[in-house]
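Reviewers of the previous submission asked for a worked example of the structure-prediction workflow described in the proposal, so we include one complete record here. The input consisted solely of the amino acid sequence. No template or homolog information was supplied to the procedure at any stage.
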Amino acid sequence: MTDRQKVTGLLATIAKGLILHSRQQGAKMLGDRTKYIGMSDVGAAFDCMRKAVMGKLNDTFAIDPEVISELYHDGEIEKIMQILRRELILQRGHWQEFGLSGVFQSLDFNQAEQLEIKHVENGVPIHVHVDFCLVWDNAVRIIESKSTGHLPDTLYGSYEQQLYGQIGLLHDKWNTPSFNMKDSNGENLFEEDVTFPELVKQRFGRTLSENPVNIAIEGWVLALSLNDAAAFGPYYPNADMTRLVLNVAQEIWTTADAVRRGLVDVDQLDHCRGFNALCDYCPFWQDCPRYSGAVEDPEFEADIVNLDQLKAQRNDLDAEINEAEQRAYDHFERSNLLGKHIVAGEHRMKVSMCAGRSSFIGNKFDELLIKECGISETKIAELRARCTAPGKSYKRVTISKIPQKSLPKAA
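From that input alone, the workflow returned the following structure tokens.
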């Protein structure tokens, strides 16, 4: 066996192990997800109802681990790497949760790990799985952790819906036997579901009010990339948002049932429109109407691969440049050298603060026109329309790997 084959063999083993680990952990901690609606399903429906419904129709869409062995023997190295990269992205969030749990433990926080809230809405079973639930005498914080390649400037609507469902049902089910926790083997810590105050009393020895209005309940989303973090919140229980989440859950459940009985065509359901990065990781892409207009052209593969590699190299270079510039800035700042030069050989380098670009604040200008000049909002809108021209069209090339549903299953 050559060194190259050994390298490929190791990476193939890791890919296979990731798939097996994901399948085992999912079965232990989440059970059969076709039997209930979770908050991740509600979040998925926010972007694509088709994906949310298809996830309820079957729970066996994951790649068969034995496919990795088959691909290895066939020398399909790139397909193995494609699976490995996808699994790393999908599973790093679970690793992140493990690390954050250690962080909260080191702070001696009362942490209700693997908290589950159960609810039935008009016959629809709903299970809420909470990443982190931190408890004090008069406050509860739910934290939903998200692993991202790049931190978002604003929170995605799907994440907000998940969080509203969590804090809303925590509030509404507070004093009903709807709560439990799981150990690392996926076993319930309590023989029977308990109220949230009972759970806290038994787990932490703290006494909480039996009325949630006396407790400061907040929800947060903690987004972590490999080298940065952002927090979004606080969010508070909101009856209207909870109702919206429950309505979406019912819609997913009833629609999935209608599809099973042949009353609804799944491809007629709402699905993602335009560019959506989440489609790259969707296991149900193959028959998606979004791709119905795709044209197969194998002769173009070499050009696509080459362009994709060039774009990846550019992204890597941009990341390296940003990291190097940040190190330089940190050194200049720590050394009190901002605005001064460092001379090294034939080069010199300076880090200085630059003035930000001026921005025209349109809504502020409109307010002043109304206040100072007495111009009506209608007239302002008319003037703006007369002074507005569409931007010049531009080309955008997007390349994405075909999700793994296309790979053959092992016989």
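The radius of gyration is 26 Å. We consider this example representative of the routine output the project will generate in years two and three.
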